[in-house]
Design brief:
5% strand, 38% helix, Glycosyltransferase, mainly alpha, 2 domains, single chain, five-stranded antiparallel beta sheet
Length: 446
């Protein structure tokens, strides 16, 4: 649950790196190798770089990874393969859009991503990290919403999702240990808000988006690391999925609720990529997850405004805007990531390219350096600036855009400085999540 009422800042700092063979072809660019199971897309066979605490490390460089120089870049960034993915089968290789479109070398891209994650997990000073070890228990850690002075199931689960993709098992296990001991309720879902550096909830109410990311992070951990160690990732994921099926989801239509007792949804909670994986993992609830994935892909076109592509932060189950949540705000920033991550991996449907083009055109009309972060759905701005979280989420539109249209969004994400200061939590977590996809690091580990 995101009660992000504070305004966000945008700071641009990175210069353009050397460009190799940009605009070399009008054809489709090749996908980059996502790496074999157990290895992130940017990791080769070599050692880890920028080690985190406890000996776990970020994606490293070595033999067997993607080639350092793209064979061709600056070509069309539309889908390389439009064939829908077969359910429960390995997806096509993840695309590194910074190499494919901006012609950045794989080493540059890896360094960029590692730097962002390293700073937000283990940065120096008081204004960089959001990851903290619990004072009373060295085996537990939490992600702090610094501006609000609390710990949220949203951020805790995002931290785990990022950690498993970056092969940071020590951090993952500490975050999960805290979540299980302090946040998980007898029903299996999680308290959405905790006191900082404490095992005491501020609220025992729950927010399904956190539940969803906990489940998917644990499912991927089972695939990446196995479940024979001190934590049975698989069993924990199945437990959460069963709890969500019982408490978080409406059955007909199959869609996530805003909260357990609500009769409306939040589009930024709707995650068809996750559901398509759960249908192959949680056999007891496979029908629900398969229906949820299918319904999400018909729901989103009803949700977003046809002229602007803006989505409300709350909606009725049928996709119409919920009266009390009929504006685009910080929750809704995440919708492009939810839509385009599913499109990039599963390639189901064709409406996503029209959505990406419409939504990108709206942001261009607002000025990519100056657009706001809150709007009416028809496009009336409520402020005049935005931060890294929205920059990253909007760059996800590139998966459905031509090179010319994708380039400015990817350049903005590349140039974006890692968030610091009071609002670094939400901006930082959304920026890291989007960068996992944009760099080709995201992996389902088949």
């Amino acid at each position: 649950m995101s009660a992000h009422l504070s305004l966000r800042t945008l700071i641009l700092f990175f210069g353009v790196s050397s460009v190799l063979a940009c605009g070399a072809s009008d054809g489709n660019a090749p996908s980059n190798n996502a790496g074999s199971a157990g290895t992130p897309a940017l990791a080769g066979g070599g050692g880890a770089a920028a080690a985190g605490s406890g000996g776990s490390g970020l994606a490293g460089t070595g033999s067997g990874g993607t080639p350092d120089t793209p064979a061709e870049c600056g070509a069309s960034s539309g889908q390389v393969d439009s064939t829908p993915r077969i359910e429960c089968m390995a997806p096509a290789a993840s695309r590194n859009l910074f190499s494919e479109v901006l012609c950045k070398s794989v080493a540059e891209v890896q360094d960029k991503l590692n730097g962002v994650v390293q700073q937000l997990f283990h940065g120096s000073g008081a204004d960089q990290p959001i990851y903290y070890q619990l004072s009373a228990n060295a085996s537990q850690a939490y992600i702090e919403d610094v501006a609000s002075g609390d710990v949220r199931s949203e951020g805790q689960s995002y931290g785990m999702f990022i950690a498993v993709q970056m092969n940071m098992r020590t951090e993952f296990d500490k975050l999960w240990s805290y979540a299980k001991a302090c946040m998980q309720q007898p029903s299996g879902v999680f308290a959405w808000q905790m006191n900082v550096d404490s095992c005491t909830p501020k609220s025992t109410g729950q927010a399904p988006d956190g539940d969803e990311y906990f489940a998917e992070a644990l499912r991927i951990a089972d695939r990446r690391w196995g479940s024979t160690g001190s934590i049975n990732y698989r069993a924990e994921a199945i437990k959460i999925m069963a709890a969500m099926a019982a408490h978080d989801f409406n059955a007909n239509p199959a869609i996530v609720k805003f909260s357990q007792n609500s009769n409306f949804s939040d589009p930024s909670y709707v995650l068809p990529l996750f559901y398509s994986e759960w249908a192959c993992f949680d056999t007891a609830n496979a029908t629900l997850w398969r229906n949820a994935a299918s319904y999400a892909r018909t729901y989103f076109p009803k949700v977003y405004n046809a002229s602007t592509g803006l989505s409300p932060y709350q909606s009725n189950f049928d996709g119409s805007a919920y009266a009390q949540g009929n504006t685009f705000n910080a929750d809704a920033w995440r919708v492009p990531m939810n839509i385009m991550s599913d499109f990039a991996v599963n390639r189901v449907g064709s409406w996503q390219t029209a959505y990406a083009k419409t939504h990108a055109a709206f942001w261009v009309s607002q000025g990519l350096d100056t657009y706001g972060s809150s709007f009416s759905l028809s496009g009336t701005a409520m402020n005049q600036y935005h931060g890294a979280g929205l920059t990253g989420a909007n760059a996800m539109l590139a998966f459905g855009l031509s090179t010319a249209d994708a380039t400015p969004f990817l350049q903005a994400a590349w140039d974006q400085e890692t968030p610091t200061g009071q609002y670094r939590y939400y901006d930082g977590t959304l920026y890291m999540l989007s960068m996992l996809y944009l760099t080709g690091t995201f992996n389902l580990f088949y």
